[in-house]
Amino acid sequence: MNQSVIIGDELTISHETVGFYALSQGMKINCSLSFNKLNQLTGEAVTPENAEALFERARFDIEDIAEKAIKNQCHEDNELLL
């Protein structure tokens, strides 16, 4: 598990994104991962029905991507789009 950024266990699935939160230095950042990006990470077509399973399969990669984006301050108003 990543030490500087922690990804929460709660996921919100919509028609085109997976919503989750990251904790970094005591700050909660709401994140959205597009189905397109999840498809790139897993190589599988993403639907609302399989998005959670695919997210879990790619969780460590997603943590790395979120950590880099947060360190580079790519988020606005505690929102991060991946």
Automatic annotation (TrEMBL):
InterPro entries (alphabetical): DUF1488, Shew3726-like_sf
Gene3D superfamilies recorded: Shew3726-like
The organism's place on the tree of life at top rank: Bacteria
A Pfam family the protein falls into: DUF1488
Protein name: DUF1488 domain-containing protein
Taxonomy of the source species: Bacteria, Pseudomonadati, Pseudomonadota, Gammaproteobacteria, Alteromonadales
